[in-house]
Design goal:
- The protein has about 120 residues and is α/β, with parallel strands linked by helices.
- About 45% of the residues lie in helices and about 20% in strands.
- It has a single domain, classed as 3-Layer(aba) Sandwich (Rossmann fold).
- It has 5 helices and 5 strands.
- Strands 2-1-3-4-5 form a 5-stranded parallel sheet, sandwiched between helices.
- Helix 4 links the parallel strand 4 (about 75-80) and strand 5 (about 95-100).
- The longest helix is centred in the N-terminal third of the chain and has 13 residues, at about 10-25.
Length: about 120
């Protein structure tokens, strides 16, 4: 089990991710706002940060940097509807896992499990 922070501005997707991850046994914290995510990152120190690439109020790269500062062994998963090339050009490093939309909830769960156990796809 891992403590997972999900940062996704679409509530329906946040809830879908939460249901899937909780069913898989993970503790899930959620927010749709980058500024609230910053507070959750420092107050709860997640094992895994899942963030949408495009958030309305903060850059995903800012959240990633903060997550790495508060937990140097934190695993990061960026979710995006853009291509991986676009994700990487936005400043997301190659050591960050990327999951491209659309995907099945089982893909999210498998990716989180792999990250939690130190594996990369």
């Amino acid at each position: 089990m891992a403590r997972v922070l999900v940062v996704e501005d679409y509530e329906a997707l946040r809830n879908l991710y939460r249901i899937g991850l909780e069913t898989a046994g993970h503790e899930v914290l959620m927010t749709g706002a980058g500024n609230e995510a910053k507070q959750l990152l420092t107050a709860n120190i997640p094992d895994i940060l899942i963030t949408d690439l495009q958030l309305p109020d903060v850059l995903a790269s800012e959240l990633i940097q903060l997550a790495c500062n508060v937990n140097p062994v934190a695993k990061i998963l960026v979710i995006s509807g853009e291509s991986e090339e676009v994700v990487r050009r936005s400043g997301i490093s190659d050591d960050v896992q990327v999951l491209l939309k659309p995907f099945e909830i089982s893909d999210l769960i498998c990716t989180v499990e792999e990250l939690n156990h130190g594996k990369r796809r």
